[in-house]
Structures are given as structure tokens and as C-alpha cells.
Design a protein that fits this description.
alpha+beta, 17-stranded antiparallel beta sheet, 17 strands
Amino acid sequence: MKPGLPLTRWRALASHCASACVALSLAGCHVSIGVGFFDDEDALIDPGNAASAAATGFDTLVSLAGPVLGIADEPFRVPADETPRRALVPGTFDWLEWAAPIRGPGVPVSGGRFSSDQTRACDSGTVRVTAVFLNSTVFGAGDTIELDAADCRFGGLLFEGRLAMRVIDGSGYPGASAAWSTRVSVDYFDWHTGTIALPLQARTVNGRAVLDAQRLDAVDAAMDFDSPVLSIDPVVSGAVRARRAVEFLSLRLTVGVGNVRVSGDFELFDGRFAGTDLETLRVRSDGAIDLPVSPPALPLGILLVSAPDDAGVYARALDATQVRLALDRFLDGQIDATLLSTWSEMRGLL
């Protein structure tokens, strides 16, 4: 018996276990030995909502860190070499490398600095780049780059809104140096990224973050991304979804030739689940998660999604098809039930 759990609740668990397991069998769930029913007096994750919790956790993580907008997007629509990437953090990194070199033809301004204001063409539409910098060869504290995107299309992606970056520290020169590093504060003002092909997948982001970025060589990079709060307004398969608030976000990424590896930790508030047990979730990677940059481009690894009472589900992406969900009622390492889901089923829950 778990310490502190009333005997009446254990009797309730026992009395409902058999009928609940029958219901799960009829629903086609794969249940391991252990309890197939959880008392609903507290906020928790149970067999009925584990797949929804895992889906929103994976989708948010990938929309922040991966080569796609989210798990609802069709991975085979994503070119392996797509740049700027459509995810939030690598996308910001790519925009920094794209925008920084065009500060060169700057005009001297007060304080010994230089100002540059250019409108650059995209495949269609434009981006206005406004920058103030110390010199044209290295980054310096206080340097700024602002992007205003107007119907800017690169490949299959459309960008809108404003992105403002301020250098806190740096060495080398993004987009020009073979290796460089910088710490940059980033403000997102209705920064919108969406697909051209239908069904539409899109994210609009608002908030502030700090990006620690390193270009290690031509193909390798590393990034840390921290934010006290970001708001994400998603469009999933053409349907507008409720806002997600991501708090106390910490992500670490390494980008190589064939994949992105990410570890993350954040609190997630999903408006679709307001007033339910899933309204507040803690999302953490269990080790690093692989996000391949070529199809199937789905995450591979383990994500732990937990509710306020510490009920949790370990979502393990086995391959491009299957996801195994392991329910740990008290996060004590004892798995109470297992379920088998698929990416297709989880996409449908978004």
C-alpha cells in the first residue's frame, strides 16, 4: 500500500479494476499487469487520456525544436535541406545566420556604431532587416537585428511578423565565420510560420527567450534555448487550436548532418484541456530525443509527461509508426499499465 493513500481509495481501485480492464480490452488497448483504472479524485494521467497527453507533449516539443511544425504535419512534405527550418529554435538560428552578413554596408551613427536598413527579397514577399552593430566582422554586446516579414515565402514555408534579436555576448560572425558563438535575447512578436501546401500547419509565437548558439563547423551546431514563458497559437490540419503557454522552457539541441538531438524540460498549458486533468503538464525528455531531418522526420526517443499529482506517462517512439505508452501512477518506477498507439492515432488527437 502506498503511504498516505486512504484504505477506502484502495478498495475503490480494487472494486473498479476488473470492469475497467474489460473496457480497455474492448477499446483495443494493450494493458500490462497492474492497475487498469485510476481514481479520478486528483489530477492525473490515466489510460483514457495518456495518448492525448503524449500527443500534445510531442507536438509542442517538435514545434519548438524539430525540423517540422509538429507531429500533425506530414513528414514526407518536409525537404531534408529546408532552410530556414520551420521549428522555432533552429529557425531562429537560421534567421540569425541569414540576416547577420547583410549588415555590412552600414551607415555610421552616434556612439561609433553602424546602422543598416535593407529590404530583402524572399522567394516571394519580403523581409525588412534593420540592424545596429559595432563593426562588420564580429558580434558585440548590444548589437541588434530586427526582422519584419511580409508574406515572405522560402520554399514551402510562409513567414509573417517580427523577430527582434539583441546580442548579449559573441565571437565570430554568424553566416560568415566557419565557427562562431553568441548569446542573444530574442523577442517574438506574432512571429508566424506556416506551410504553403494544404492541409495548413502553422504556429504563431509571442514572448521572449535567450538563445545560446554555437556554429561548430559547416554542418554541426549546438543551441541552448531558455524562456520564462512563450505563447504558441497552433493551426493543425487547417483548424485553429487553442493557445498553448510554455513556461520555464529549457531546450538543448545539437544539429548534425542527419538529425537534430534535443533534450527539453517545460511546463505546458494547453487551452484545449482547460478545466481538465491535462490543463497543466510537465514535459521532459528522458535522455536525448532524435529528430531526423529527412523522412519520416518523426521523433525517436522517450518523453515523460506528468500531471500535477505526479502521475505520468512515458511515451516511447519506437519507429516511424508506433508509440508505446507506459503509465506510472506515482512516478515511482513501477509501471501500472501499458498502451500501444501510433503516430496516426496521435495526430488525430491534436
